[in-house]
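Human: I'm a chemist; would you kindly supply sequence and structure tokens for a protein?

Assistant:
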Amino acid sequence: MRGASKLLGAGSCTRWSRMSRASPRRSHTASPARATRLAHALVSLSTQIASMYPALRQMNSPVNDVIGLIGVVAIGTFPPFSRLDQHRLMIFATVEEQEEVTEGSFEVSQRPSGLVTGVTIERVLLRGCGNAEVSDAVVGVGVECRHQVRQDGRMTRVLVLGGSWFLGRAVVDEAIARGWDVTTFRRGVSGDDAPSVTTVRGDRTNAADLRRLAGAGPWDVVIDTSGFVPREALAISRVLEPVVERYVFVSTVSVYEGWPTKPLTEDSSALDCPPDAGPDFGYDGDPGPSIYGFTKAGCERAVVEVFGSDRSVLLRPGVILGPREYVGRLPWWLRRVERGGRVLAPGHPRRSIQPIDVRDVAKFAVESGVGSVGVFNLTATGQDTMEDFLVACREVVGSDAQFEWITDEDWLVSQGVQQWTELPLWRSYAGAWAVDSSRARAAGLETRNIRATVNDTWSWLQSGDVVVGHERAAEQGIDPVKEREIIAAWNARIGH
């Protein structure tokens, strides 16, 4: 076994500088006798790891890296870390003041975290991945060899804040599909827990709940799909910073000063909101800005203030559609087109639109946990049109709906039709569907066409799955009587 022969060649142990935020601890030099006993304990540990993970004993496997790494720690030398970085190996230790080396038993926990515990030895590698830290004063080792391993060997622990609704659930599903070790933090008031996850119950406004959450760590990445209040984002960032490597925050294009009137890139000016602001900071304008945009901008600042720009990912999606949508935009259109008859279709049929599928956002969010840091707009390509969208709705529901296109949008507004709500996805402003997401595409974002999103959402609606009730769903859709009157007035105006 790689590293075993080196282990038996005992010698004095080298002291290595500590690189963590933890306070430095007393360092010793181990005698040859103690180093020999340590080597035997490490051989025992390595052998048991290998026997419990026979499928991972091939060359270049994560477990072989663990075995070899433990071996060289015993004699005070380290291998190159390029492969360790690739696999993102994590080895954690508990610090106890003990003098004796004990060859304890070794077993794999059946808990979702897959924590390997049970052996007490004298030296340990703390939080690897290139930040090698060894101290002779550290005893008590737990080697985390996660039971969920991706095909490329990368093992990742992710914490999802939320995880039962729409985007949060899509993120959880994506992480599970990749074989990641998933923990969710949610109140449990609505929605349901995804299978194969560890769930921590709690409220992000409760300090005791946050401390308890941090105790369930560490994690490689946290993905926050439910942050809306800056001071709450600040509090949870501070609590999680010691136990999380990277923070992925799902924000919104509403943080831009120019939304929805101007074309936007990540370099466009964002709204100004302090990181400790409350839920009512800012104001609602027409067509913008909004309190929602202000407070999301404040949440972004809170995350970056605590984690720094080198450990933060800020995602700014536009309109998100797809299965489990609780706002009700796409579900309303599907139900309306299903009823058939003459359907008020707003604006020009060839207008480009950019709604993005929830699963595409989730995939990019998960990949951001191990990918590039920075700020990313997330929208579809803009190749689909409003006509593509409505025709896809008609085809999937199989109705006889006839679309009455009202292309004079000023006239439509004059009839008292509320943009964005009475006719979901309709907005006449130039910037509504002009959000540049080329930076995200360069970083790996892929988006499906609107037809796929429409079809899958209809299948979900037909499945009988429970739709999470939300007050915003009641805002969607035009009254049928009002719709008929406006269509009649339009036809009279154009001479039909």
Remarks:
- The chain is about 35% helix and 15% strand.
- The longest strand covers residues 244-250.
- Residues 281 and 291 are 6 Å apart (CA to CA).
- Residues 1-43, 45-154 have pLDDT under 50 and may be disordered.
